Amino acid sequence: MATTRNDKISSIIDGKRVIVKKPELLAPAGNLEKLKIAVHYGADAVFIGGQEYGLRSNADNFTLEEMKEGVEFAKTYGAKIYVTTNIFAHNENVDGLEEYLRGIASAGVAGIIVADPLIIETCKRVAPEVEVHLSTQQSLSNWKAVQFWKEEGLHRVVLARETSGDEIREMKEKVEIEIESFIHGAMCIAYSGRCVLSNHMTARDSNRGGCCQSCRWDYDLYEREDGEEKALYSENDAAFAMSPKDLKLIESIPRMIEIGVDSLKIEGRMKSIHYIATVVSVYRKVIDAYCEDPADFKIKQEWLDELDKCANRETATAFFEGVPGHEEQMFGEHGKKTAFDFAGYVLDYNEESKIVTLQQRNYFKPGQEVEFFGPDMDNFSQKVDKIWDMKGNELEAARHPLQLIQFKVERPLRAHNMMRKELVSRP
Amino acid sequence: MKKPELLLTPFSMNHLKELCEAGADAFVIGEQRYGLRLAGEFSRNECKMAIKTAHEYGKKVYIAVNAIFHNDKVDELNDYLSFCDKAGADAVIFGDPAVLMAARESAPNLPLHWNTETTATNYFTCNYWGSKGAKRAVLARELSMDAIVEMKEKAEVEIEIQVHGMTCMFQSKRSLLGNYFLYQGKSLEIENRKDKKNMLLHDVERNNKYPIFEDENGTHIMSPNDMCIIDELTEMMEAGVDSFKIEGILQTPEYVTMVTSLYRKAIDLCAENTESYEEKKEQWLNAIEQMQQPHRPLDTGFFFKETVY
Ligand code: SF4
């Protein structure tokens, strides 16, 4: 049975093997603007949070109205919207759930991502048209548990981040259900759903969105013998830390596609527009390139460089390629600074006059080197020449957030392209 | 008033006998290959003996099969569950739905207790697992007493709570201690300390010390205090909570036996004569306080503490 399923992944067209089962590229969005960017930059689906029951209690969440607008927008591009509804509910969260789920359904959302059987069962009952996807919060790690959730009628499962490529392959072979797996972003170092550090340390419930990332603090390691405590580190050693490097599976995408993973997920509902645009467009290119011609596929250096431009921590492959060792954790250091920053959002480009109109997103000025990128173009850099406001006044610098700015750009641009600048110490 | 079961985690066969004498009603045993954070290791043979002994005393034995399983161990589950069944275990404790599936296939009459530790946070979900075959739900430790009482009222399954000892705050599949030693270039330390379970993380800001250890299931970090509610049993006994667990992990067997005999007295008296229980309870609390190691203060867990989110 395994072989027939794998056969569906590719076929031979005109003597050349191509991938026919292209996985969904799933991106996060913390607000409407980010949702639109994710879709423009190539996401097939976007996951967002609602006002309640999601695991980011203070992050940007969508009202029902915004959800509706997001769904409508996505539809015109053939993209889907999922809503994370993945808290482990307490008794007091039971009231209001039905109404909330009906609201989501009426907004036209394609699916919800859920951890608690309370929410799974309620959704099946009051909003049967909405797909139910099991959240990674359930730490789903084996094929038999996948089988259980399939029999419970779930449409899709998001696996534990602790599962390896070989394990996912076996699950795909044994159970016929959609599998979603993380490819990029920050991760818990604990099994998801099995960490209550924040509950103990700060009285905030991590399984209802209150996590304060206590795992990323520094601790001192001691050993206790005969009532005495002895330090297990010396003066110059870094403190004990549990901070994982961020996940980056760009080089494993071909393997994931061949395994038949149905949805490739980017983490980060709290991430910036620049981050979402950059990461989504790189993975879009990787997936498309591999599916078109798997035999001659190579990871391009420019893709890796591009991901680096929005990385604020070091990255690793985590569990997909085996259990991660100490090189995949961070000790003593606390991340690196991003080298690039989002500086402008292109609204219009006049082919004849070569004048771009863009919305300022960060300080820039004439003479500065900037880079343009977008979903269907190769990046290019140029120096900013004279800049004007919309009334034609020449400006010394683009200082005002969201101000509309015009200047000349040699190569063609399109609406929704972005401009970034390298971060240098300001004079 | 109905008496709840007093549930213990023995370290060894001998300790199990001691605890029978001290007043335990039931035991959690097992091996780390299948069970999480057990006080002692019980091989299959030892499980058989433990069940035999406990049954002679009229006590129950539950085998822990509540690890988070990956594909590699899933195929062993059927065999292990039929072993548990044949050995006469009174129940199996599970968290992973794979165990439920395997039990349906290989040991359909074996009672199941649902215990994921952190995710049993509402009555609906307890009843959901009940409808899938669980006879009991073990509640998350991060709940207030009011929430527990409400869950007991609305639950169609037995309810077990922890009343004493350490609780787990964190489990990672990664080898976090090993990784730290490797990072420091001290790989020898890993072997030296493998089974000792005597390491602590100091949290200077909160002035807390968290026990940390590694085993086959990964790295575990435990609470800095020992929960103790020997003086607060009335409300939960009135509510009819079915089982009170004393967690023995990382304590000494002597300590656990002493604590067991005190809870035995407390439960019996509370059931028979609440007023005299109220008079005596301070005394028992003090007796336990006397036994605490200096780095393990007592507290009341989350019973009287609200968490926000
Ligand atoms: S403290 Fe760390 S491991 Fe725990 S839930 Fe928060 S991010 Fe995850």
Detail the topology: elements first, then pairings.
The complex is a heterodimer of chains A (427) and B (309).
Chain A: H1 2-7, E1 10-13, E2 16-19, E3 24-28, H2 32-40, E4 45-49, H3 64-76, E5 80-85, H4 97-106, E6 111-114, H5 117-126, E7 131-134, H6 143-151, E8 156-158, H7 165-174, E9 178-185, H8 197-202, E10 220-225, E11 228-231, E12 243-244, E13 246-248, H9 253-259, E14 263-266, H10 273-292, H11 301-308, E15 315-316, E16 329-330, E17 340-350, E18 355-360, E19 369-373, E20 380-383, E21 387-388, E22 394-395, E23 404-408, E24 418-422
Parallel strand pairs in A: 3-4, 3-14, 4-5, 5-6, 6-7, 7-8, 8-9, 9-14, 13-15
Antiparallel strand pairs in A: 1-2, 9-13, 10-11, 12-16, 17-18, 17-24, 18-23, 19-20, 19-24, 21-22, 21-23
Helix pairs in contact in A: 2-3, 2-10, 4-5, 6-7, 10-11
Chain B: E1 5-8, H1 13-22, E2 26-29, H2 44-56, E3 60-65, H3 71-87, E4 91-94, H4 97-106, E5 112-114, H5 123-131, E6 134-138, H6 145-154, E7 158-165, E8 168-172, H7 176-183, H8 188-193, E9 199-203, E10 208-215, E11 218-222, E12 226-228, H9 234-239, E13 243-246, H10 253-272, H11 274-291, E14 298-299
Helix pairs in contact in B: 1-2, 1-10, 3-4, 10-11
The structure holds iron/sulfur cluster.
